[in-house]
């Protein structure tokens, strides 16, 4: 990171944070970067490709000689590419984390946190992320603690972020996540954060979904549907858009099966898919009992 003067990666980083992944990739040719900044640039570009589901490209392009943060990103791509790769990817992460020379690398710890959060092993995730050190690590801590239903601890992490930089995009996002988790009058505050983003930045699926979830919490399902269909136009395979459309459609009394089927195809591991499968099994068992 740049010590003084303008941050050469600010625009790239911000595009990544708001979910403008293609824009991050397209605008990644930043001149005169230091070696550390060049590695960070590459990690952001490859993580953008991962967000666009281009896992194989990342796996193919990062070779064994690449820096530790890039090796970690490759393991994330491997982990997400196929359920068959999960054990190998997690073993690879443990190997890197166990090396005293590189185990404390912030990108490595971040990727470990992301992977173990996917595994729903939140205690293991926090073991690597809890020390913080970067805004992304603090933001991930907020997400993990919300998933653990510990909004009190999430708020402490958010306060740390606010002390570092209140207007930082990740601080604002973390504030919106926490407001949604707390609920009640805080939902309107979360909506205003996403509204502010939509006025400042290009509209992305991440921003549209954020606004839509706020609308659903406030009972505005028609507005939520409009936002989600706009998000679907931007990315027809985005799991969060499809999952939110399933929920929104059910509330509106509209058919949701097609969205659920698309979600099963694009993201078979998604929580909503697993819940639906579990409900179907329970229903089938109940029918068999009656029969």
CATH topology call of the domain at 199-291: Serine Threonine Protein Phosphatase 5, Tetratricopeptide repeat
The class by helix and strand makeup works out as mainly alpha
CATH architecture descriptor text of the domain at 199-291: Alpha Horseshoe
Major sheet characteristics: none
Pfam families: Coatomer_E (PF04733)
Membrane topology: Peripheral membrane protein
GO molecular function, one term: structural molecule activity
Keywords: Cytoplasm, Cytoplasmic vesicle, ER-Golgi transport, Golgi apparatus, Membrane, Protein transport, Transport
Give a brief description:
This protein has helices at 10-17, 21-26, 35-51, 55-61, 68-81, 86-97, 106-118, 122-129, 135-147, 151-165, 169-182, 186-200, 205-217, 221-234, 239-252, 257-266, 271-290. The chain has 291 residues and is mainly alpha-helical. It has a domain at 199-291: Serine Threonine Protein Phosphatase 5, Tetratricopeptide repeat, CATH 1.25.40.10.
